[in-house]
């Protein structure tokens, strides 16, 4: 009998090629164990609210009023909501004549795109045009749309950091392009090494790949490094001379836990460098409401900003965005609130500041506790989480553990992470899901579990790890 179009064998090969480890084998096993009644600590996804983080009040007040505009006609509304939230809800509702139930412009509500432009101007010191800002359902949709626009065929290469967040590898596979990996230097705090990167590009070209774009993730996921201004300059120069569009994933710009290098956007560094780069280098930057102190992952708000793209290209991107009609409208309002939060003098300012600071400081403490905890374990070494919300320790697996994994038909890091899950309920993602150098093993965990649970989590990790190492190394404590 002829196979039917949606039989597995007949599917689009690109779809079958996609791998997305953040919700892969470990996650599935963790879900199974949870169903069987085991307590699971899900640290596989950077999903703060799922691990108990409370929403910042102001954003929820504004969106609640936008969702239920009849509350604004209630004479008691002022008892339930502060005046600035009421004013802000009215401000956004005035921008959306049909309210939250209507599609918006496919690029997002013009008034919010203007607010994003003001935010970028204030952040970088250089103005931008709202017409070059598109609102999206989280940053993911924007990244996918831009990759789709760039990739023409399997010979088009995209330089992606390794380890990387698998949105990139998965989307490049889906659109049928080629991922050109460049390795971050773990020993040099996950920085970029341009000698290696040049070599990587030369090798790709010698295989007939046209390298067209370079992705940077700053601060890094899963690696947690904050790039220095000097490193960003090198990236920009490299992209300019190699004729690459730079895709700057800056979704963790608010999650900075070191004090030496405040966040600098690639766009700012590029404008600081002046012409010819500032006039010619093509740059797309991404942001989201899912991260930062907000962590509003479920709201699906994001934007991308395009610098030095010709109007005809911007129009093509608009055309393709139009196929989806409209980004999610509540997500757009979250974006508006995030980039334009309460200001000094506003009624909600003290509460907003206290809540944001609490989240930020707690994450900073958790970043420290996690790094220190990992570094206290046998055969585990870990760079400090300078930014973002992950820890990516290297696990030095003894040869006997690697052999045992082989016998079990598992990659060594998957083997280790599965054992960790079974023993402790801690659900992580094996480093192979993000890419790592041959023969080197990692795991990724978020720094998001509740702060009060950290001592127990780290001590249960240590207990598991040290006994695992003892088992496979024949180590004995005399
Ligand atoms: N870029 C990076 C570097 C990310 O880490 C994520 C999400 C995104 C973009 C997309 O997020 P939104 O679509 O929600 O804006 N990070 C995933 C992760 O590694 N764990 O959780 C989600």
From TrEMBL:
Its EC number(s): 2.6.1.2, 2.6.1.4, 2.6.1.44
One function term, GO molecular function aspect: glycine:2-oxoglutarate aminotransferase activity
InterPro entries: ALAT1/2-like (IPR045088), Aminotransferase_I/II_large (IPR004839), PyrdxlP-dep_Trfase (IPR015424), PyrdxlP-dep_Trfase_major (IPR015421), PyrdxlP-dep_Trfase_small (IPR015422)
Named cofactor requirement(s): pyridoxal 5'-phosphate
Catalytic reaction list: glyoxylate + L-alanine = glycine + pyruvate; glycine + 2-oxoglutarate = glyoxylate + L-glutamate
Protein name per its UniProtKB record: Alanine aminotransferase 2
GO aspect biological process, one term: photorespiration
Keywords: Aminotransferase, Pyridoxal phosphate, Transferase
Function recorded in the entry: Transfer of C3 units between the cytosol of mesophyll and bundle sheath cells to maintain a nitrogen-carbon balance in the C4-dicarboxylic pathway.
Domain of life: Eukaryota
Pfam (any one): Aminotran_1_2
Quaternary structure annotation from Swiss-Prot or TrEMBL: Homodimer.
Sequence ranges assigned to domain Aminotransferase class I/classII large in this UniProt record: 84-447
Species the sequence originates in: Miscanthus lutarioriparius
Family: Belongs to the class-I pyridoxal-phosphate-dependent aminotransferase family. Alanine aminotransferase subfamily.
Annotated metabolic or biological route of this protein: Photosynthesis; C4 acid pathway; Amino-acid degradation; L-alanine degradation via transaminase pathway; pyruvate from L-alanine: step 1/1
GO CC terms, sorted: peroxisome
């Amino acid at each position: 009998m002829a196979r039917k179009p949606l039989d597995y064998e007949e599917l689009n090969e690109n779809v079958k090629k996609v791998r997305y480890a953040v919700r892969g084998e470990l996650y599935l096993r963790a879900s199974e164990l949870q169903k069987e009644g085991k307590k699971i600590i899900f640290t596989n996804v950077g999903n703060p609210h799922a691990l108990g983080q409370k929403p910042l009040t102001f954003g929820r007040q504004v969106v609640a009023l936008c969702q239920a505009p009849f509350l604004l006609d209630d004479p008691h509304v002022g008892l339930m909501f502060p005046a600035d939230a009421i004013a802000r809800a009215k401000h956004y509702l005035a921008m959306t004549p049909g309210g939250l139930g209507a599609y918006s412009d496919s690029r997002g509500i013009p008034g919010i795109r203007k607010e994003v432009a003001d935010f970028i101007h204030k952040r970088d010191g250089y103005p931008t045009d709202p017409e070059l800002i598109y609102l999206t359902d989280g940053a993911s949709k924007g990244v996918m749309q831009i990759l789709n626009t760039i990739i023409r065929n399997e010979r088009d290469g995209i330089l992606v950091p390794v380890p990387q967040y698998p949105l990139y590898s998965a989307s490049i596979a889906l659109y049928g392009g080629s991922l050109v990996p460049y390795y971050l230097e773990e020993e040099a705090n996950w920085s970029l090494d341009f000698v290696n990167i040049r070599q990587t590009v030369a090798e790709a070209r010698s295989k007939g790949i046209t390298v067209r774009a370079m992705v940077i993730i700053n601060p890094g996921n899963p690696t947690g490094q904050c790039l220095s201004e000097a490193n960003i300059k090198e990236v920009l120069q490299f992209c300019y001379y190699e004729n690459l569009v730079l895709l700057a994933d800056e979704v963790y710009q608010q999650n900075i836990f070191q004090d030496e290098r405040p966040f600098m956007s690639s766009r700012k560094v590029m404008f600081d460098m002046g012409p010819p780069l500032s006039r010619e280098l093509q740059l797309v930057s991404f942001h989201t409401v899912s991260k930062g102190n907000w962590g509003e992952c479920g709201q699906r708000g994001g934007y991308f900003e395009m610098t030095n793209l010709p109007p005809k290209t911007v129009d093509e991107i608009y055309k393709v965005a139009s196929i989806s009609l409209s980004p999610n409208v509540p997500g757009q309002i979250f974006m508006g609130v995030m980039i334009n939060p309460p200001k000094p003098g506003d009624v909600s300012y003290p509460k907003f500041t206290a809540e944001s600071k609490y989240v930020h400081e707690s994450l900073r403490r958790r970043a420290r506790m996690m790094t220190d905890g990992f570094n206290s374990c046998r055969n585990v070494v870990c760079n400090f989480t300078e930014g973002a919300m992950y820890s990516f320790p290297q696990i030095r697996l003894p040869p006997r553990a690697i052999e045992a994994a082989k016998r079990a038909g598992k990659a060594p890091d998957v083997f280790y992470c599965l054992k960790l899950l079974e023993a402790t309920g801690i659900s992580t993602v094996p480093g192979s899901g993000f890419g790592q150098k041959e023969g080197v093993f990692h795991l990724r965990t978020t720094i998001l579990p509740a702060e009060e649970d950290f001592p127990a989590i780290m001590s249960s990790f240590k207990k598991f790890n040290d006994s695992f190492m003892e088992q496979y190394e024949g180590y004995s404590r005399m």
